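We were asked to recover a plausible sequence for a given structure. The inputs and outputs are reproduced exactly as logged, with field labels preserved.

PROBLEM: sequence recovery
POSITIONS: 160
GIVEN STRUCTURE:
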């Protein structure tokens, strides 16, 4: 049985999240199973999200992977939206107000802010991890830091 224990400190929850994800990656070799559980674990530990999940880079398209939330855009073509911007710039993208990001793709009209972090396999982008929130300016340096740690763990898993 998997028990998710949460406490009042946001950072302690994020540390717990990292440890749970490490345990999963240490015990299962299937990437899709792991990405599915990682999206569920983030959804348990990170408050105020309306969607969290992966898009996997296939040729130039980002194709929907494991996620938590409402059904989402299946295939995002190169050049479109925040997720492809993260691929193009090869960087984390933190958007405090999606209505001010030209070209943002609204899979869910409730989304107001968004954090996108690349996941690498042998130094090439394998996927992006996308977190959406119905609150403006939801993601701070704290979330950037811990979600980047999650992506580093996945990158290590993929590159070993
Ligand atoms: N908003 C993203 C699309 C993915 S959904 O948010 C799940 C974008 O602009 O790329």
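RECOVERED SEQUENCE:
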């Amino acid at each position: 049985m998997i028990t998710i224990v949460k406490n009042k400190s946001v950072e302690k929850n994020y540390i717990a999240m990292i440890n749970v994800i490490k345990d999963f990656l240490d015990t299962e070799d299937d990437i899709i199973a792991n990405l599915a559980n990682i999206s569920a674990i983030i959804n348990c530990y990170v408050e105020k999200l309306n969607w969290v999940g992966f898009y996997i880079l296939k040729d130039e398209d980002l194709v929907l992977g494991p996620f938590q939330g409402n059904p989402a855009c299946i295939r995002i073509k190169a050049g479109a939206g925040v997720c492809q911007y993260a691929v193009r710039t090869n960087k984390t993208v933190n958007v405090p107000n999606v209505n001010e990001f030209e070209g943002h793709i609204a899979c869910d009209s409730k989304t107001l802010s968004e954090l996108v972090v690349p996941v690498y396999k042998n130094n090439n982008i394998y996927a992006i991890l996308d977190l959406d929130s119905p609150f403006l300016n939801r993601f701070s340096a704290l979330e950037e830091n811990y979600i980047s740690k999650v992506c580093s763990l996945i990158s290590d898993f993929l590159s070993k």
